[in-house]
Amino acid sequence: MSQTRKEPIKNGKLWIVFGVLLALITPWYFPSSFGDILIYGIPLWAIIIIAASLLLSAFLSYVIKFHWHMEEEQEEAESKGAK
Amino acid sequence: MDLAFSGWSGILILLMYGLIMLSVGLITYLKNRNIHQSLEEYYLGGRGLGVMVLFFTFFATQYSGNTVIGYPPSAYRQGFEYLVSVPFFIMIIMAYLLFAPRLYTLGKKYSLITPAQWFEKRFKSKPVTILASLLMLYGLGNYLLEQFVAIGQGVSGLTGGTIPYQVGVIFFVVIMLIYGWLGGMRSVAYTDTMQGIALLFGVFMLLLGSIIYFGGLPTSADYMQAYSPEKLGIPDGPGVVNWFSLLVLIGIGAAVYPHAIQRIFSAKSELTLKRSFSRMAWMPFVTAGVVFLIGIIGINAFPGLSEGDSEQLVGMMASSVASQNAIFYWAMVLLFGGVIAAIVSTADSVLLTFSSIISNDLYGSYINPDASQYKKLLVGKLVGVLAVAILILIAWFPPATLYQIFVLKFELLIQIAPGLIIGLYWNRLHSKAVFAGMVAGTLVASLMSIFDLSLLGFASGLWGLLLNCGICVSGSYIMTASVVEEEEAKQVIGM
Question: What ipTM was assigned to the predicted interfaces of this complex?
């Protein structure tokens, strides 16, 4: 066996963060004034949703890169060698 | 659709796209002559797709011509509430994290070719595998039907009716069949790449043109503030429920599309798969985000359209942009050709998965398991062609009654998710519970859709899915898998 195997689904902490992000990308928490404030033609609440979506994408990239490691080292080396 | 740039230039660009697709098929065929002897080579590109090609082929399963033509009208009508289309595409990648890491590893370990084969491996139950296969075939068939109708409408729109609907469908379907037949997954993935790039370029040019000629977001926001402030407002209670149910349903639903699952098996390595997913996580901003903005700009550009007229919004905006100068003219021609090509590329992926389930799971496992791989492949391809012929007939002569049964797809495809995903992690999951769950979930989701019933504002597919999950879990506790079965499942999962 190689180094420790990492599977995202088994890491509860990641899913707590995903839960928080899911809550942030749903527009339930805005005071109604956020619909009136416009920044370059975009309502403030929509800007916050977009920012939260960017955070979700960033967190997904992080999890994919650092918390997903199922293959054994040998196979990875093989595939690198092939190309 | 009435387009300013329809006519000969449309015909020219369609011929060009068709020719490129055919060449891709031919080159792939000449370079990989051995692929017709092996299911793995033909259906999975020999499990050798690299980051770029894998990325675009995933891209083509998620974004179709419909994203470009259908999403801006929704943004036009709903305003900023339709911003949900950006995060729901990101959710698909989150849903992949629930099963793709393990499924990729198992796919490699057991040389899996189709999602149905995982069911066979895991549950060793003929009824479960056959039911899952049939659900997928049915859902995929309807999916194909929808694409064919869209190809026909697109072609006749782009060529200003010069090329009738039927000729358009036949032209592209024949091309699709030829390059699919010649090169299998490799052809499909390479053409996906070409079509993806054309579509991205076209959409960006449309956004750019719209901003230049109609004014950007601030102009549109001024208009909304004056005439339809609700389009800028925060979604209300039911709006939030709808938003959330879209996030969950689309996230899980699009991730378990059979052709999307099959692409996991095609990856060259785990690293390749990870990199493709990582890129996909950022794509919603430049795809769904851009088409959303086009719809919002449309609110100011073409105010007061009725619901039916607003469906033509992209055509109207592209026509105005195209009439400004030659660069935009050709960019718009390229965009609409790209839209049609993107629909073809969604159809080809679906057809390939359809054939693979016939080759590998129905014919190859149950009807004639001793057949050579060459023969299994041939049967899958021929049944695929036959299915296409039948679907084209249905598209031309739509049955007067029961038309709804040809619309069900998402509701059915999503019913394989519980068996597939829970089965990856839970050794006790019982095959009979999975079978019962799939049947019940399918019935509930289909009947609710056919009779147009709704409950608490959630989509019918979601109710079917909930029931399905409930039966899978409670049924497994009641029936309790024998120690032997549980041990076997543990062996198969092996981690």
Answer: 0.88
